[in-house]
Amino acid sequence: MSPSTSKSKKSASKKPAAEKRSVEEVVAAQQRIQQAQSQNDARAKASKKAKSSKDDKTRKKTAPGPGHEVPTPPMPGKKLAKPGHEKALDLQPLYLAENYRGSGKLEGKTAVITGGDSGIGRAVAVLFAREGANVAILYLNEHDDAKETCRLIEEEGQQSLAISGNVQDPQFCEQAVKQVLKQFGALNVLVNNAAFQQHAADIEDLNTERLDETFRTNIFGYFHMVKAAIPYLQRGDAIVNTGSVTGLSGSKELLDYSATKGAIHAFTKALAQNLMERGIRVNAVAPGPVWTPLNPADKNAEDLREFGADTQMGRPAQPEELAPAYVFLASQVCSSYISGIVLPVTGSVGAS
Question: What is the mean pLDDT of residues 300-324?
C-alpha cells in the first residue's frame, strides 16, 4: 500500500467531532474553518486577475428604507473573526426600527430567540419586547453583544435573559428552556435563528469538519430546540425558523449552508403538519442578504463591499427590515390561520 493511499484511508475514516462540545471548542472549530477558507481564497486570488472596481456613477438606484435612509453599497470591507461580534463592525446594523409602533401583539408572552445577541436576532428581540413580550436570547460567547441586546429589551419595558451555550448540544437546549421557565414561568414563542456560514468556491473545500459544523448548528440545533420547547408550548403558541434565500434558489459558494437552509424550509413545513392538532403554528422567514455579523465573518473584503448589490433593490436589508415578519408570524392576532409557510424577504421580486 502506497503512503498516499494509507493517508487517504485515514482521512476518510476520520470521525466527526463529538456531539457535546463546549462553547470554546465550537468557536475554535469555526475559526479553524474560517482560517482554512481564507488560505484557499488567497491562493485563488493569486491565480486570477483582480476584478475592476465598479464605477459608483453606474450604480443602480436602491430601494428606500423603512421610513429613513439606510446604508447602500459599497459596504465596509472589514472582516470579522467568527462567530462575529456586532460590536466590532465599523458600520453598525440598524435594529431599533424607530418608525415601528408596538400595539401589544405579544402582550404577556415569553419568547426564546437563538442567535439573539446580534443581527436579525437582536432586531427581533427588540420588536418582540416592543410588542409586550419578555425575551430570552441564546448565544455562543458574544457577551458584549448579548448584554447590549438585553439592555435594549429592558428599554422597551420588558424583562430579558441571556444564556450562553451551544445549541448543537441537546442537553444545553433542555437546560436553557428550563432556565427560561424558571425565570418567566412560560414559553410561548421559539425563534430558531442561530447559524454558521462559511463560503467555499469549490466543493473540494468542504471537508467533514465543515459539513459537521454547518449541519449541527443550522439544522440539528433547530431540532434540539424544538424538542426541548415542545412540552411547554400551548395552543396558540408559535415557532418561527430562520431560513434563507439560499434555501430557495441555492448559492454556488454556500453549498453546505444552502443545503441546511433548504432542510430548514422542509422541516418547517413538516413540523407545521406534525403540530397542527396541538394548535401550534410553525413558519419560517427566508431573508435575502442582511447586514449582520454573519457575512463580515465569512466573506472577503471585495465581496463585502458589493454585498446586496445584486438584489433587485440594489442593497442589503437591515435587520430592522426583517423583524416585522417575525412579529407577524409569532403573533396569533396577525397569523392565526397561517402555518407551514416560508415567507421570502429577499430584496428581489418573485423569490420563492
Answer: 87
